[in-house]
Design a protein that fits this description.
By secondary structure, the protein is an alpha/beta fold. It folds into two domains: 147 residues, 2-keto-3-deoxy-galactonokinase, substrate binding domain (Nucleotidyltransferase, domain 5, 2-Layer Sandwich), CATH 3.30.420.300; 122 residues, 2-Layer Sandwich (Nucleotidyltransferase, domain 5), CATH 3.30.420.310. The chain is 38% helix and 24% strand. A six-stranded mixed β-sheet has the order 3-2-1-4-8-7, with helices on both faces. Helix 4 runs antiparallel to helix 9, helix 6 runs parallel beside helix 9 and helix 8 runs antiparallel to helix 9.
């Protein structure tokens, strides 16, 4: 099967590229830690050649598309956000072209969303969302430092919300007294302490407890001190509180449909455990969602 597209997911801390066929099948893939945070200004063409030069040389006429922070104002060149509602075709109509040693590469823009609560943005996650939506997902969850929940109607993202769950967990664990036990706790698989945190966090987000989330967070310290929680379980409890609060808040925004969760396998597993603790049906999305989304954008943009 012949290559038809070089598709690149280029974020702040990582680089992943796919060599795709005309049917969107992944023929080869590679990954590295060469995110844009490590690329000096003006060094994008050389970095691209170093990482996928073999593909470029073997396929001199092959189109190339990249999404993620590479298209931000801190990246190769800014590709302005597309306001929601928006689908792959809307993104494809606003691709930004750059040149890499005489070769044209197009950068996909991110999405923006505004409602009465303010403004939200994403860059890179939209390609994964399009990939999951193609497989039938209507409520799509992308866990991470900045977790995204997106609602899809037809082929378009009509609304989304960002939760800084992962970033907040790391900050509390590594830089606060409340998270000291969590910082010293060993890594574990989700278990009873995690489930307890999930249940309490979701109840707080839903206004079903006397205390809100802020009033519960210090429990990650107080409970071990008082013998109510094993210190080694404090990290799991804190993680559960935050993920539970995220799910509780997001389910108020996007009720009904069972979520499809996409991303790194350990995070997907953790979120599925959280949904199970709350009795909410959820599905793990098929892997390589970014590759499918990039293929869809390229196809709609006439690159194939």
């Amino acid at each position: 099967m012949s290559p038809a597209l070089i598709a690149i997911d280029w974020g702040s801390s990582s680089f992943r590229a796919y060599l795709l066929s005309a049917d969107g099948e992944v023929l080869e893939e590679m990954a590295s830690g060469d995110g844009i945070a490590s690329v000096a200004a003006g060094a994008y063409p050389a970095t691209l050649r170093r990482l996928v030069g073999r593909w470029l040389d073997a396929n001199p006429t092959l189109p190339a598309i990249a999404s993620g922070m590479v298209g931000s104002r801190h990246g190769w060149r800014e590709a302005p956000y597309v306001p929601c509602p928006a689908g792959a075709r809307d993104v494809a109509e606003r691709l930004t072209a750059v040149e890499a040693e005489g070769r044209r590469v197009v950068l996909a823009p991110g999405l923006s969303y505004a409602d009465g609560a303010g403004v939200d943005v994403m860059r890179g996650e939209e390609t994964e969302i399009f990939g999951v939506a193609d497989a039938g997902g209507r409520i799509i969850v992308l866990p991470g430092s900045h977790s995204k929940w997106a609602k899809v109607e037809g082929e378009r993202v009509v609304a989304f919300k960002t939760f800084i769950t992962g970033e907040l967990f790391a900050a509390l664990r590594d830089h606060t007294v409340a998270g000291a036990f969590a910082g010293a706790a060993p890594a574990q698989e989700p278990g009873p302490a995690f489930a307890l945190g999930v249940e309490r966090g979701a109840a707080a987000a839903g206004g079903k407890t006397k205390s809100g989330l802020l009033g519960l967070l210090f429990g990650a310290r107080a409970l071990p001190l008082m013998g109510k929680l094993d210190p080694d379980d404090s990290g799991e409890y804190l993680s559960g509180l935050l993920i539970g609060a995220e799910i509780g808040e997001a389910r108020r925004l996007y009720p009904g449909e069972e979520p499809h969760v996409a991303g790194a396998e350990p995070l997907v597993k953790r979120y599925l455990a959280a949904f199970e603790a709350l009795g909410v049906g959820a599905h793990a999305a098929a892997p390589r969602a970014a590759a499918r989304g990039l293929f869809r954008i390229a196809r709609d943009g006439g690159l194939l």
